[in-house]
Amino acid sequence: MEIFYSKDIEGGYLHLDEEESAHCVRVLRHRPGDEIAVTDGKGNLLWCTLTEASPKAAVARIERKQEGFGTHPYRLTLAVCPTKNNERYEWMAEKATEIAVDAIVPVIGDRSERKVFKTDRLKRLVLSAAKQSLKGVVPQVQEPVSVCDFIDAAPDGALKLIAYCFEGEKLSIKEALEQSPTSDVVVLIGPEGDFSAREVEKALKAGFKPVHLGDSRLRTETAAIASAMAVYLKYMD
Amino acid sequence: MEIFYSKDIEGGYLHLDEEESAHCVRVLRHRPGDEIAVTDGKGNLLWCTLTEASPKAAVARIERKQEGFGTHPYRLTLAVCPTKNNERYEWMAEKATEIAVDAIVPVIGDRSERKVFKTDRLKRLVLSAAKQSLKGVVPQVQEPVSVCDFIDAAPDGALKLIAYCFEGEKLSIKEALEQSPTSDVVVLIGPEGDFSAREVEKALKAGFKPVHLGDSRLRTETAAIASAMAVYLKYMD
């Protein structure tokens, strides 16, 4: 199954952008009258009839709407410090999208080696991963923010978890998830050099629970995926 | 912490190969008398004193042995069909090693696009991932084998799971793991084009349990990591 993506929906018709149009018409050779499936990125799958098979600006008529397509029964925000190697971060974002994530936030820590982070490329990558894995909702890639600012802005109602390396009383992420009544989860993952003491202190004051991810020493990007999997598995039937 | 790896251990002394020696002496500038930690790849961490700081053939005297280092309380074999894009397979092997895996078996399915697979590069990559993540045991990278031959050779005592896409009664991998008394787990993951009907039939006859990995559509390499995480989380305290 192939799904397209469009934000440009109006009066029972939708328009595909240039990239999507080219893929639909040039690559997949769809012609007027063909049925195509389009997600609006908000959890709706729109079954359409292609009316204008233009490789630059295809248009389709919406025939029916399937709600709650490619969604998951929880809300997960992954706030992850950029890795030194950008490919590892992109990989993390792709895999988190495949598994299920709602927001990816590049957070810059006191000990982050990379202080600058561009999101354009990551947004494109997340969109294509969402389409490839038939997600109805495209995860939000937020603009970079400092760890401290992220902590200040984190919602009170959510289960807020922070995974850091240095010593202290910690639950496993599995226990923390099992004990929690809320399905709104925020996980904060530090840089290769870990969080600073003041960042951890601030997080704990703000109600973040310190968690460990088991006995294995995981890289930053693997810790993020392990967290996404832990939440995914909690809700697996 | 930095650990080295040596198989060449005799009479209370060990030798590092050329690559390890260069890393120890040239890169990390260790000198005679320095304490270094070396794993034998079998779950033992050997605390040693460097006696010959040769950048081509370093030698160290074993002072004490720490058993059960960097091990995990289960045995996991991941039998995964090679992905079209080899990088994705290498990534899977690196991440599985970080999380915890005992054997990685490239299996060639009826519908595999890649029928040939070289393991040399993968073995080096797994070794360096094992060292980086402080594993005491280096996962075994086996030579490629057909899916059918792998099924024939799979141990009877193990919990044998097969994840395939087409319809049928399936437990979730989480349920299958929870129900199982054994800690010896084998997971068989198919190629992009899925297993053939005869492969699935053969696996079920051989006692493999069909499992699903939840509602998300996961790529081959992500399915393998999801399986490794499911086992890892079962044993997480």
Largest sheet of chain A: 8 strands, parallel
The radius of gyration of chain A is: 20 Å
The count of domains of chain A is 2
Structural class call of chain A reads: alpha/beta
Residue share in helix of chain A: 25-40%
Separate helix tally of chain A: 7
Shape of chain A: elongated
- Separation, N- and C-terminal Cα atoms of chain A: 24 Å
| Mean residue pLDDT of chain A | 94
Please tell me about this protein's structure.
- The structure is a homodimer of 237-residue chains.
- By secondary structure, chain A is of the alpha/beta class.
- Chain A folds into two domains: 3-67, Ribosomal Protein L25, Chain P (Beta Barrel); 75-236, SPOUT methyltransferase, trefoil knot domain (Alpha/beta knot).
- Helices cover 32% and strands 27% of the residues of chain A.
- Chain A contains seven helices and 14 strands.
- The first copy, chain A, has helices spanning 18-27, 86-99, 120-132, 147-153, 173-179, 197-205, 220-234, and strands at residues 3-5, 8-10, 13-15, 35-39, 45-52, 59-66, 75-80, 103-108, 140-141, 145-146, 159-163, 171-172, 184-189, 209-212.
- In chain A, the strands form two sheets. In chain A, strands 7, 8, 9, 10, 11, 12, 13 and 14 form an eight-stranded parallel β-sheet that branches.
- The radius of gyration of chain A is 20 Å and the shape is elongated.
- Chains A and B meet through helix 2, helix 5 and helix 7 of A and helix 2, helix 5 and helix 7 of B.
